[in-house]
Amino acid sequence: MQILEADGVLEPTKLNQIWINDHIYIAILPESAYNLEVWENTTGKIHRMARMDYKYHRDTFAGFIYRLCPDINLMQIHSLQKQINPFFDLEV
Predict the structure, then answer these.
(1) Rounded to whole angstroms, how far apart are CA atoms 4 and 27?
(2) pLDDT on residue 92
(3) Which of 19, 75, 86, 87 has the fewest Cβ atoms within 10 Å of its own Cβ atom?
(4) What DSSP character marks residue 23?
(5) Does 35 score more than 80 pLDDT?
(6) Which residues, at least 6 apart from 4, have a Cβ–Cβ distance to it below 8 Å?
(7) How far apart are alpha carbons 77 and 80 in whole angstroms?
(8) Cα maximum dimension of the chain
C-alpha cells in the first residue's frame, strides 16, 4: 500500500480501504506494526483517528471501533471484520 505525505501527515491511498460511513474508513496496512488505522475525512481534511495491531489483537476490535463510532452496531462490526480478515489470512 502506498502512503502519501500531505501537510506532514501520512495518509493511505484508496487501496485497502473499508468505509464505515461517509466520513470514516479503515485502512489496512498488513506489513506494518500497527496494521489497522481508522481515518476520518471531514471537509477535505484527512486525519488518523486511531490505529491498532489487528493481527494479534483482533479480539479487542469491537470495543476499539465502538469507542470511535458509538452509533455502530454489532452486526456492522461483524461485517467489517469479515472484510478485514482476508488481509491477514484469517477465517472469515
Answers:
(1) 13
(2) 63
(3) 75
(4) S
(5) yes
(6) 10, 11, 12, 13
(7) 5
(8) 38
Domain map of the chain by residue range? Answer: 3-87
* CA dihedral of 38, 32, 13, 58, whole degrees rounded to 10: -40
Quickly state the pLDDT bin for 3 (edges 50, 70, 90): very low
Q: Which helix (H) or strand (E) holds 46?
A: strand 45-52
Q: Three-state SS for 52?
A: strand
Q: Write out the three cell numbers for 49.
A: 483517528
84 burial type by CB count under 10 A (0-12 exposed, 13-18 middle, 19+ buried): buried
For residues 21 and 18, give the distance between their C-alpha atoms in angstroms, rounded to a whole number: 9
Contact 35, 29 (CB under 8 A): yes
Whole-number Å distance between alpha carbons of 33 and 55: 9
pLDDT tens track for 47-92: 999 999 999 999 999 999 999 999 999 999 999 999 999 999 887 6
